[in-house]
Amino acid sequence: MKRVRFAARAIGLAVVVLVGVGACAHDPQGDGSGAAAPQPVGVTEEASGASAPPTPEQPAVSPTAQPSRTATPKPSRTTPKPAPSRSTGCPQGEQQRAVETYLSRLGGFGTLTVDGKQSAADCTAIKKFQLRYGISPASGRAGPTTYDVAKRLASTDTARCRAGSGTTFCVDLTRQTVWAMRGGKVVMGPTVTRTGMSGYATPSGTYSVGGKNMREWSNPYEVWLPYWQRFNGGIGFHETTTYLHNSSIGSHGCVNLLHRDAVRLWELGSVGTRVVVFGRRPGT
């Protein structure tokens, strides 16, 4: 009798264990129906790409989904698009008309309309001028530095230089410009320079190049002077070592030039080349 009761209990326990395994094995987090437990929305979208639009082969329609009530769209009132801006992308400076006038007189920088209004063509021409003469920033804006440089160049009278029959370097201290002549003709047009500041004024007079050095060392100021051409003691032509258009400073008597102008003058000059310096730098 005890054996029968023990066997019955053993059979009952086995049934309970088997039923428990069957209910939870495939759905440890489900409701007991055997359906898969719902996944977090973010995980489902990331793993399955559910956020992507359905393809024709796989329409995203759930059999149990309820039809949505879509409101009838109302006609939208389309706002007219504004006309394309005519902005040149180039700011207008306070010296617009004057710069247009001077650049038109100089020529070589493009077609400008002298009307005091910035245009795409004006912007291009002014930028080209600024890049040529080392004006920073070269933004196309007709500001005071651009105005000053353009005025000096446009008002330079090359005939004032008492050039000889050979090559002559001409320095206008008043306008702070330099050019070169050969046989009475201009072979290097006027360009910008910076001469001696107050207390170190570059002296006017007629000289000649006494020595040349591609890279001269300045003992008193401990700096290299590229494309050096000496014409008066320790005074000579050389490439500038600082921003040329900083009007608050000047040289210690030398004639400072932009790189391309220093190179060109170096190519034109030789020992004995005539140098004519005239006028006077304002403030010296």
TrEMBL record:
The pathway it acts in is:
Cell wall biogenesis; peptidoglycan biosynthesis
Sorted keywords for this record are:
Cell shape, Cell wall biogenesis/degradation, Peptidoglycan synthesis, Signal, Transferase
Instruction: State where composition is biased (Polar residues).
Output: 61-95
Q: Which Pfam families match?
A: PG_binding_1, YkuD
Name the active site residues.
H238, C254
Q: Matching InterPro entries, A to Z?
A: LD-transpeptidase (IPR050979), LD_TPept_cat_dom (IPR005490), Peptidoglycan-bd-like (IPR002477), PGBD-like_sf (IPR036365), PGBDSf (IPR036366), Transpep_catalytic_dom (IPR038063)
Describe the location of the L,D-TPase catalytic domain by residue ranges.
167-278
Give the matching PROSITE patterns: LD_TPASE (PS52029), PROKAR_LIPOPROTEIN (PS51257)
Region Disordered: start and end of each range? Answer: 30-96
Signal peptide segment: 1-25
Protein's name according to its UniProt entry: L,D-transpeptidase family protein
- The species is Micromonospora halotolerans
